[in-house]
Every structure is written in C-alpha cells, then in structure tokens.
Amino acid sequence: MGNEKIQRVAVLGAGTMGNGVAQACASIGVDVVMRDVAEPALEKGLEAIEVSLARFVKKQRTSQAEADATRARIRTTTSLEEAVADTDLVVEAIPEIMELKLSTFLELDRLAPEHALLTTNTSSLSVTEIAGATSRPERVVGMHFFNPVPLMELLEVVRGMRSSDESIARATTFGERLGKQPIVVRDWPGFATSRLGIILGCEAIRMVEQGVASPADIDKAMELGYRHPMGPLKLTDLVGLDVRLSIMEHLFAELGEQFRPPALLRQMVRAGKLGRKSGEGFYTY
Known about the structure:
By secondary structure, the protein is an alpha/beta fold. It is built from twelve helices and eight strands.
C-alpha cells in the first residue's frame, strides 16, 4: 500500500515528542489520534499543542483558521485499541525504556491493521530489537523526530535489520510530506544524530568537571565558532540531564569508553538538577 494512503496516524505518547508529532501530522491535513495511558497526560499534551499553534499564528507562520483546522483533526484516547484500529501509520513516542517499547509493539502487532507502518521515535534503542516483538518486522522502522517537532527540519529514518525497502520509502515520503528532510541510517547504537550529539555533550560536561571553562563560555565557543544554534550544555538542560545520562549509559554499554557518563552528570542527576524541567541544570531557570 503506497505512501498516498497515509491519511490516519496514531501517535502513542502525549509528551513533548508525541504532541509535537501529532501537531505536525494534523497540520498537513492528516487525521490524528493521540494516545496516552492517563487523561491528565492527554490534557497536558493538547494544551502544549494549543500553545504552539497560538505561537505559530502570532508569528504569522499560519492563519487562525489553519490553526483551528489542525487542532480539530486531533482527537485523544487512553485506549490503544481505539487509537490504532484503522490507522495507516503508528508513531510510538513513549519513554526510552526497552521493556515498555517491546510490550507496546507486541500489542500493536495484535491490534494494528495489517497494512499499517509501525514506527518508533527512539533516539538510540535498537529498532531491530523493537521490531522483533512483532510478526511483521519488515513493517517496522525508526522515525526519529527532533524537538520541537513542528519546527525542526530533520527526520532520521532508521532501517532495522528486517525493515523492507517499501517501509523505508513510506516513512521517507511521509517525512517529506511533513516538510522534513529525511536521512536514512542503519540501525546502530545512537544512529547518526544521537551518537554525535551525545559525544559532544559528554565532552562538554567533562570540560566543566575539569574546570576548563564555564558552561556559558563552552556553549559560546560552539555557537560562535561552529555556528551551532545552541551550545551542548544548554541543549543538555533542554533535553534533560536524566535523559542524556540514560542515553550515555546505553551507548557506553554498546559502543564503549568514549560514552562513559561523566561523574559530574551522575552527581547532578542525583541532586535533582535535571535542567529546564527542574529549574536548574548547568544554568538556572
């Protein structure tokens, strides 16, 4: 079944990534069901979409009528069965815990239509392993979006060991419909983006630990000297120090010493300094 058939999308998870994917899909005229395990999470996700759309209208990126139409295309449910019953594409954006993803894809295999493309937004976990929870691994690929999803142009399409060419083509073409620029990468720990981004963040934290320079000056070096829109420590605060620690631990186990988490990062996470979400990380908010 071709790409033109993707008209119904199920997004699993209403957090930062999930609500961003839901908004991006609804904005191109696709019907979206956003699913989370609890109503408060769905309400929070919808609120984030409404704030984002209001910002788009204020900045004249979209009209009020288009924003209203986008919002109207998104419905919510706590039922996985209802979310995926007649979907063409599933985008899983639940927490980065392999056991959760495996149990979710086991259920998707039972509940989603045979033609549906099943995708995971994981930033570093094995797409091949996730696909192994299903009886149709050829229809499972990675679709790694970037935060904030409605604005970021990159889409990393990850080819699992058993992903079919057709599934990769469907994911890539849908990404282009969303206005993204897809890159296709092999299923390898950290893919292309997380692997490079994490190594930079890891080294920046070690430099703070060693007293090489202040967080602000390290960030300024990358922003002004390398034209990065945001320095690696500001980015770590945005993503969450706990999230980055978890990815580093995974890559350390899979790829080795260069990803060993700095002791400073572990201490900050233990102290509850998680970045923007806790009000303090390498900067104070």
